């Protein structure tokens, strides 16, 4: 890498391995020829032979904020290196040194040195002929000549090197900046001209091609649209006629099926309801009769009736405590205790339910026994099993028939409603005039009311005649339907 000498002065020296801050660069130590950087002198570390330096070969890199060296051990005393010791004794100061040509012409003074890192080789010198010259023409650049002779206060430049300095483009300055800007501007203008010409040619070709393609596409689309319109129109007429015919037959068929299913479901529901109501009424009648008989009997008879009976449910006292658990066989003392607790009728009611259940079991046993006698080969108990299955099948069949009837009726009603709606939509669509037909009917007729645009401006006043311009304006403002609705229908006269 290359760096200017002034950029190194004052920067921190940091050990790359440990991060230790060694010090700051105080001075650049060059050899006696001024063409090689030997070391960097650290500030605050003595003078001359007592000074501490870092040899240039130990410099790893030069950054914006610090000079990175190998490690802290790269720092040595100047007197331990004879070449460094001799350079410090020579005390060569390149910055500010006067440059003279061999013919004695003053070329300027050295204001900076460019160095190659890490070799330390001096690449060249930056020279200034004064502030005004720098501002107007910029600074001069002198590559390191082998024949450059450096003294204590001046350096002699060979004539060839001096001529090269004068002829070389200056660095910086108004003149150099103007020349650079002029060159860049010319290049930009030429490039812009070329790009503009290419863009214009490409744009012309693209426009011509797009115009031709657009015309072809328009003609093709127009032809296809006309063909598609005719095809769609024919298919729509055929479909409407077919759907209308099928819908009529389907509606009649569905209606008949729905009525038959509803009648069957109603009959099944009525039969099941009658049977259930009859059984319930019979049970209520028997229970009421038994309750009435017991009520009419005295407490003594009630207790006597209860003895030996089993309760069907728990019976509790008024305070919530259990008096008689479910399934308890009633004894005379237990009946007397229930009477003292005021729960005799409750115990009677619980025992009555058990008696009814027992009676039902006995009735089923009698019917089952009768079946067993009629069919002795079926096995004992087969009659009771047949009675249970018959009762279960009858109840299940009644429930299934009622549910299927209701489901089929609901599905038929739903389907019938959907088809009726679809048929109504098709009929309405066939009888609804198209927008083009409505526009044709509206042209030349008076408006029955004022129609306004969304910005509240009047498109047509009541009584004005509808024209093509009025229709176009209404379409642009999105109120075409409102305009057509405001036209007096054909065949009517204004009152």
Structure description:
The protein is α+β, with helices and mostly antiparallel strands and 495 residues long. Among the domains are: 2-92, PRC-barrel domain (SH3 type barrels); 232-432, no CATH class; 435-485, Alpha-Beta Complex (Molybdopterin biosynthesis moea protein, domain 2). Helix content is 55%, strand content 16%. It contains twelve helices and 18 strands. The strands form four sheets. Strands 1, 9, 10, 11, 12, 13 and 14 form a seven-stranded mixed sheet that branches. β2 and β3 form a beta hairpin. α6 packs across α7. The protein is elongated.
Question: Which helices and strands appear, and what pairs or packs with what?
Answer:
Elements lengths: L1 E3 H4 L3 E4 L5 E10 L6 E6 L9 E4 L3 E4 L3 E4 L5 E3 L4 H9 L7 E4 L4 E11 L5 E7 L2 H7 L2 E4 L5 E2 L3 E4 L1 H9 L5 H124 L2 H8 L8 E2 L5 E3 L7 H9 L3 H31 L7 H50 L3 H8 L8 E2 L5 E3 L7 H9 L3 H6 L10
Parallel strand pairs: 2-7, 9-14
Antiparallel strand pairs: 1-10, 2-3, 3-4, 4-5, 5-8, 6-7, 9-10, 10-11, 11-12, 13-14, 15-16, 17-18
Short description:
This protein is 55% helix and 16% strand. It has 495 residues and is α+β, with helices and mostly antiparallel strands.
């Amino acid at each position: 890498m290359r760096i200017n000498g002034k950029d190194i002065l004052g920067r921190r020296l940091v050990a790359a391995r440990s991060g230790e801050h060694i010090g700051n660069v105080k001075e650049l130590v060059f050899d006696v020829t001024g063409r090689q950087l030997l070391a960097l002198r650290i500030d605050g570390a003595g003078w001359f032979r007592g000074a501490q330096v870092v040899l240039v070969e130990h410099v790893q890199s030069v950054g914006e904020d610090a000079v990175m060296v190998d490690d802290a051990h790269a720092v040595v005393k100047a007197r331990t290196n004879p070449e460094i010791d001799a350079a410090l004794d020579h005390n060569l100061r390149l910055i500010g040194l006067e440059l003279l040509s061999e013919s004695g012409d003053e070329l300027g003074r050295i204001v900076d040195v460019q160095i190659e890192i890490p070799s330390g080789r001096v690449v060249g010198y930056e020279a200034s002929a004064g502030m005004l010259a720098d501002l107007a023409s910029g600074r001069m650049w002198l590559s390191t000549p082998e024949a450059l002779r450096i003294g204590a206060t001046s350096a002699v430049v060979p004539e060839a090197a001096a001529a090269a300095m004068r002829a070389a483009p200056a660095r910086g300055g108004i003149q150099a900046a103007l020349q650079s800007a002029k060159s860049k501007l010319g290049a930009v203008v030429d490039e812009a001209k070329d790009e503009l010409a290419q863009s214009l040619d490409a744009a012309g070709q693209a426009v011509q091609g797009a115009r031709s393609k657009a015309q072809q596409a328009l003609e093709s689309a127009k032809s296809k649209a006309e063909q598609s319109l005719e095809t769609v129109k024919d298919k729509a007429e055929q479909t409407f006629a077919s759907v209308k015919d099928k819908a009529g037959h389907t509606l009649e068929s569905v209606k008949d099926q729905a009525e038959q299913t509803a009648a069957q479901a109603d009959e099944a529901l009525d039969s099941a309801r009658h049977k259930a109501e009859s059984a319930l009424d019979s049970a209520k009648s028997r229970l009421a009769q038994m309750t009435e008989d017991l009520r009419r009997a005295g407490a003594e008879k009630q207790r006597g009736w209860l003895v030996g009976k089993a309760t069907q449910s728990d019976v509790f006292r008024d305070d919530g405590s259990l008096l008689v658990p479910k399934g308890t066989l009633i004894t005379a003392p237990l009946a007397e205790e229930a009477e003292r607790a005021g729960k005799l009728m409750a115990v009677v009611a619980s025992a009555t339910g058990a008696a009814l259940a027992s009676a039902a079991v006995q009735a089923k046993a009698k019917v089952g026994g009768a079946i067993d006698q009629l069919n002795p080969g079926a096995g004992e108990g087969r009659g009771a099993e047949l009675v249970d299955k018959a009762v279960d099948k009858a109840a299940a069949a009644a429930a299934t028939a009622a549910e299927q009837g209701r489901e089929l009726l609901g599905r038929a009603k739903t389907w019938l409603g959907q088809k009726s709606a679809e048929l109504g939509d098709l009929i309405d669509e066939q009888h609804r005039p198209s927008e083009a037909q409505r526009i044709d009917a509206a042209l030349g007729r008076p408006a029955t009311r004022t129609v306004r645009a969304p910005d509240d401006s009047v498109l047509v006043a009541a009584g004005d005649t509808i024209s093509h311009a009025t229709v176009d304006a209404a379409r642009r403002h999105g109120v075409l339907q409102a305009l057509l609705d405001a036209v007096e229908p054909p065949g009517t006269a204004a009152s």
